[in-house]
Amino acid sequence: MSAPAPRNAKLLWLALPGAGVLAAFFLAPLATVFVEAGKENAVARMFATPEFWDALWASLWLGARAAALSLVVGIGVAAHLARVSPRLRAALQVLIALPLTFSGLIVAYGFILLLGRAGFLTLLLEKLGADPAAIAGAFYGPAGLVLAYSYYLIPRVVLMLLPVFLNFDARQMQAAESLGAPRWRAWFEIVLPQVAPTFLAAFCLVAAVAVGAYGTALALVGTQLNILPLRLYSLIADAGADFPLASAVSVLLLAVCSLIMAVAEIAAARSEDDDVRA
Q: Using CA atoms, how far apart are residues 214 and 212, in angstroms rounded to an integer?
């Protein structure tokens, strides 16, 4: 009965290097941010400023739109990949996952070359009669950010949903259609209830990424758009940096993203419970 004690001690020693790295590079900086946020009445100043409330709602609205677009496109792509041959699916997965290797600045630069004021697609549409100033004006704003964010959020949605569609029993759809149900009704009444928790989890995951992203937004709109990541950047990048207020905004951004991810974890846990009961 005394054998497990030495084994547990060895496991504890093996875990110490990882725990040290976690403490040094995550817990200590995080604690510093929380301590700094408590100085100079930073939290009260943040909530008393209407601009920060506007930035919060704009960040949530931007994340929701980017996540909704990514989810709609990702569902279609994942459903199609589940129907193709395994060899073609593997090749397409490699291509779809490529945007995940790019940084936000590279994605923004690519979209500028495509839809900027002198972008390839903008000049092409100009020859067809479109107004390049209107195209560029729409691109360098929330609509352009939603499009750019979706470029690297859609692969995340596809990789999350593909196993769901691969493991789904298609015979349920075939049975419903054989009984006379239209395909759209069979999809909404059979497929959607079973995969809705995974859809919600994917939506929350990419929404949290969109809310916290700043590289793409900084390259496309600078600090002209009032969202939390750019507000945080302006607080630490300007000459008169306000570090307590920047720390308070960091804590707020952390809390928002953590809350969104908590919803995703709850949805994923309920999905697993439903699978176990089934």
A: 7
Q: How far apart are CA 50 and CA 56, in angstroms?
A: 10
Q: How far apart are CA 191 and CA 144, in angstroms?
A: 32
pTM across the whole model:
0.85
- Please answer whether residues 199 and 71 qualify as being in contact, where contact means their C-beta atoms are separated by less than 8 angstroms: yes
pLDDT in tens, 182-236: 777 777 878 788 888 889 989 999 999 999 888 888 888 877 888 999 988 888 8
Q: Domain segments of the chain: what residues?
A: 1-37, 41-277
Element (H, E) at 83: none
State how far the Cα of 89 lies from the Cα of 215, in Å rounded to an integer: 31
Q: Give the model confidence (pLDDT) of 86-101 as tens digits.
A: 999 999 999 999 888 8
Half-sphere exposure (CA, 13 Å, Cβ side) for 21?
Answer: 4
**Distance (Å, whole) CA 103 – CA 110:** 11
- The CATH number given to 41-277 is 1.10.3720.10
Closest CA to 166 of 96, 97, 274, 85: 85
